[in-house]
Write a structure and sequence with these properties.
six-stranded antiparallel sheet, about 20% helix
């Protein structure tokens, strides 16, 4: 996932899984009992888990949304064990872009960006959300000049139901980036970073 940023272990490909157990969002206002909960630790495991699942699949980050986007009685994939690193910082067309992993918390990503002299343009006071969750649910705009986090998105990698990775950016697929990848509520695929 590449974002516009402004100035101011080798892992097993087998996802960890557990049998049915209770899941709830951070406030306890949304509850579910998924048949399976996957906790992948790598993109390979995430792809394998998605492609090998049958029935409905939902993906959750930190579970910080007030909505029931992640509630399912089938398969829930949790991004909490996914790595969350700053992969690269580069210049492109006058913008500084940071490539980040989608499973990282906004807190972790913010600290990594700060180490490079960069920051998000706008964040709320709560930073426990995953970057992927913030992108998928329109966190945290405060108006036209400070839009939600996903407005800073320049490209991302989506994992489809078959486990295929699709890159969406302004050059390769601007329509997917604008209409399917920004704030789709998880309906556009799993955000891999």
């Amino acid at each position: 996932m590449s974002l516009n940023a402004t100035a101011p272990r080798t892992l097993d490909a087998t996802p960890q899984t557990s049998a049915a157990s209770d899941w709830e969002n951070w406030s306890g206002s949304v509850k579910a009992r998924p048949r399976h909960i996957w906790h992948p630790e790598s993109e390979a495991a995430l792809r394998q888990g998605i492609a090998g699942s049958t029935g409905a699949v939902r993906v959750c980050g930190a579970g910080h949304s007030f909505t029931s986007l992640c509630a399912t009685d089938e398969t829930l994939i949790s991004l909490v064990n996914m790595p969350g690193d700053l992969l690269e910082v580069r210049q492109l067309g006058g913008e500084t872009l940071a490539r980040l992993q989608a499973g990282a918390s906004l807190n972790r990503v913010s600290r990594a960006l700060l180490s490079q002299g960069l920051a998000f343009k706008n964040l709320g006071d709560i930073d426990v959300q995953s970057l992927a969750g913030a992108m998928m649910t329109a966190t945290h705009g405060t108006g036209q000049s400070l839009p939600c986090v996903s407005a800073e998105l320049r490209s991302l990698r989506l994992i489809t139901a078959s486990g295929e990775v699709i890159v969406a950016d302004g050059a390769t697929d601007p329509d997917l980036l604008e209409r399917g990848a920004r704030v789709p509520g998880g309906a556009g695929g799993c955000d891999a970073g």
